[in-house]
């Protein structure tokens, strides 16, 4: 075999290794029940339970924010986010948290917010005109 074949083979192996290592983080959304069963890092999508308490005291601990999240199956759990409270958190339509269950609480270290579109009213208005 010549050097070109050896280099191409090594690049292919490195590429596959990188692909498989990155694909571990790509996951589908789970529910709190699935997160309890698996006891591993998962993503849970849901909506904020606005009738429950949110706690954030940056003077005490700026990297502790807790709230309650309702998953698509209707189960509510307390979520502890190991970050500060995100801006416009109360206005979000959907919240995706990444973390794992610890006892009865979901401990998250990443959060993704889907906020309402500023164009939503304009879209509704345009639909009525057609």
Describe the protein.
The chain is an alpha+beta fold and 130 residues long. It is 29% helix and 32% strand. The chain has three helices and seven strands; from the N terminus they run H-E-H-E-E-E-E-E-E-H. Strand 3 and strand 4 form a beta hairpin. It is elongated. 15% of the residues are buried. The model is unreliable at 123-130 (pLDDT under 50).
Beta strands, count: 7
Percent of residues in beta strands: 25-35%
Percentage of helical residues? 25-40%
Shape: elongated
Number of helices: 3
Compact overview of the structure:
This protein is an alpha+beta fold. The protein is 29% helix and 32% strand.
Write a concise keyword list for the protein shown above.
alpha+beta; 130 residues; disordered C terminus
């Amino acid at each position: 075999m010549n050097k070109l074949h050896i280099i191409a083979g090594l690049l292919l192996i490195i590429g596959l290794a990188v692909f498989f290592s990155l694909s571990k983080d790509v996951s589908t959304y789970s529910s709190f029940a699935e997160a309890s069963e698996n006891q591993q890092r998962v993503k849970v999508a849901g909506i904020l339970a606005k009738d429950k308490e949110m706690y954030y005291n940056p003077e005490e601990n700026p990297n502790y924010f807790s709230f309650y999240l309702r998953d698509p199956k209707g189960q509510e759990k307390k979520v502890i986010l190991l970050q500060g409270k995100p801006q416009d958190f109360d206005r979000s339509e959907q919240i995706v948290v990444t973390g794992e269950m610890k006892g009865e609480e979901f401990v998250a270290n990443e959060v993704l917010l889907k906020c309402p579109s500023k164009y939503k009213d304009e879209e509704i208005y345009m639909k009525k005109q057609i």
